[in-house]
User: Fold these one by one.
Assistant:
Number 1:
Amino acid sequence: MKIPVFTLIMAGLLCYGTISRAQNQILNDNQGKPVMEQSYIDVEGSPYLTATWLPGIVSLANGKTVAAKLKYDLVKDELLFQSPRDSMALAFVTPVKSFRFDIVGTIDESSLAPLIFSNGYPAIDEQTEASFYQVVADGKAKLLKRYKKVIHSNQAFNSATTTKTFALRDAVYYLLADNKIIRVKPTPKTIAAALADKTDQVQTFIKTNKIDFKSDRDLAKLFTYYNSL
């Protein structure tokens, strides 16, 4: 019995559509999902930690580790990676637990190398356990740094035109110890109070090493010493 040509064509199209959808699903599951940035239309500046793609390493919630070119969206608190095939910006399908940029001076001359970001910390202020922090110092007492960008709308006097720009908020530091997180200011007084159980050793270390509390490198050095006591 002959099968009508039309029927064969329709069957082929349906089969192709099923395969195509499956391939797209596999692509999305393994490589990421396209990022839609309609909310950023007509906004001046960049929502990212750095405007350029940077090489980095990502640790996923499923235990896998991947290397990719990365951008960190500070408005949405979302990590993106660049597709090696077509350079598209993609979001991870599997939740990200931590990531790092292996670039010296990514933010400023006092920043750390590598820059390490992680989540899973107790909720505080506007952050949840899914929020990312830069890990300035790790150990029994962790010093964390939170970055955030917002979109500001400005309307000039006697003008109907509104301009939108990305604005970087002042970074906020947090101390995590004994699974409790508190906000701290990177000043000699507040840091010394946070490390008060080792006051004498900490004060001696600060004076001997001339710790600059405006430098993340120096803060990391101080906390590393404290965590070794």
Note: The CA atoms of residues 21 and 27 lie 10 Å apart.
Number 2:
Amino acid sequence: MAATRTIGMRLTWIARMLRTRFDARARSIGLTRAQWRMIVTIHLAEGATQKHLAQQLEISSVTAGRILDRLVAVGCVERRADPVDRRANRVYLTSVAVPLMEVLGALGAEEEQLMTRGLSPEEIATFSALLQRVVENIQAGPALEAADDEDDFEKTL
């Protein structure tokens, strides 16, 4: 039983290390964590509303709006009126963001290579399949109210 409790802690530490490393590398190209997360989320949901993007990122709509304002100001993102709902805007990446996506993709690939160094292709496939099963197990569990901010957990320690 003790071994399974450490799996969650290790996953937490791994996630933190990956974020920290990627953040530092993204900062080297002038992006904050919030900005690169928003750019990637828009890329995956091109034409989404600000509200949808905020939900995907698990941040408030106001916070998403501020991040989007900064990205619009530097020309990476544009808001377009929703043809159906006059109150909503749809968010799209511009051609300015294309090279950023390429750099972010390359950084991600480099970090993944570092993370899986020394693992065979078969081990990587097995590891990926096991992680997917863990994701499915968690998703199949009872729904819980989400925390507003992952940093709230750190404040309670």
Note: Confidence is low (pLDDT under 50) at residues 150-157.
